[in-house]
Amino acid sequence: MTRKAKHRLHPIAIMAGVGKELKNMIAPLLVIVAAGSRHGFSWNDILVPLAALIYTLVMGVLSWVRFTYEWDDRCLVVEEGVFVRKKRSIPLERIHGISITEGIWQRIAGVVQVHVETPGNVPGEAEVILRAIARKEARALQQCVERAKNRNGHVNEPETAAHRPPSPLFTLTMKEIWIASLTSGGALGVVAALCAFLSQFSDFIPYEALVRDIQSTWNGHGRWYIALLILSILLAAYGVAIVQNMIRYASFVVRKQEDTIVIARGWLERKAVSVPVDRVQGVVIHESWLRRFFGYASVSIIHAGGALDGGPAGEVVLCPLVKKHRVVPIVQACLPEYRLDVPLSPLPRRAKSRYMLRPLYWLTIPVGVVAYMERPWGAVLLLVLPLAAWIGARRYRAAGWALSSKQLSLRSGWFRRTTVHLFKRHVQSLEIETTWWQRKKQLATISASVMPVGTYSRVVDVDEEDATSIYRWLQGERSNET
């Protein structure tokens, strides 16, 4: 196959790039305008924002003119740079994953945005972004990458007839999208984003005066009004989080095409993520207490290249919400080597008291102080202590581990119970930690990590002998575990 001629992106890429830059600049520009207009409006106050806008538009056009790309059956070549010309040649077999998105600008022009991720880039960030190319070109690039990987692995597989997409393995109904949005949380993230935005205007908003007013209102027995205000803010943030998740998970579908898992989702921004099976490092099952009550869970896969779908580094969401009895067949259809129905070994009984006492170490003093200061009604807060001990007992019952000849499974947590299944060949490191208190009871903490760096699972207070057995398993001394 001869190399294709150099191509430029669709002109809509100019608007997409400029729009992204202006989105990042809007807060600083508003601060500059507000700072200049404190003593009356003047046309000089908008000179800096106007110059920034013109510069962004000019650089957007020049960047589009100077950006070219081409590929053949061996490598992808990208040339870019306005003042400093940079040329990158990426072998196709080194590409870990390709995700395809359709933002508002791309959907207007009928094109797609392609993110190419390789092992050399920062986890969760694409090495190359083709902001606007034809959908047919994106499919052709994916097929070239698959052929290159098959050729590099000495595998010859027939191409799919007529490029028909395979039947979906998993889809989300509107009811499930609604439930997933209601139970996913995210309100605290919205509040944090709002606080970060307001912090840009700290020079103009009298925060100290507001704090003094809140203190005087609190001391003046206006606590119910403050509590109502905080509750209203949290409810509004919760509503925004629900809308965000509904837009994100609309039209969610999972397919498997040969040795690649394809995950598509999104309404305003349509995104398709391609994850090669050989790059999957593990399977993660999350069960929040609310979803567990209704029999639901969420499933993610750990990807060696990072977070292709904008989630946590190393995790790609496979099923945002799924009935627990469907988890095993869906994962086995995508990753037939993994066994998710293995029985977990519980923690020793002597670890139960440690789980119950652990939350009391940091709760007893603050709860006691508040209960004393707000007596007599503050004494109700003392009920938090037995509740925390009960939650610790539930965490003890939920934790466990399982070992087979090829796979390690770890479970921890109760409010958000997490079960991680890892293959032996993917485990990068296994740590066994013991504190002075743990040594007295012959307990240990085990932590297993995989690629990318920082992706790990942990179980506290495992029996010391069991932790040693897991360590020997990784060293290859145990090969007959069942």
From TrEMBL:
Keyword Cell wall biogenesis/degradation tagged: no
Keyword Thylakoid: no
Superkingdom of origin organism: Bacteria
Domain YdbS-like PH residues, every copy: 64-142, 251-308, 396-474
UniProt keywords, alphabetically: Membrane, Transmembrane, Transmembrane helix
Transmembrane segments: 21-40, 46-65, 177-202, 222-243, 355-373, 379-396
Stated name of the protein: YdbS-like PH domain-containing protein
Organism: Geobacillus icigianus
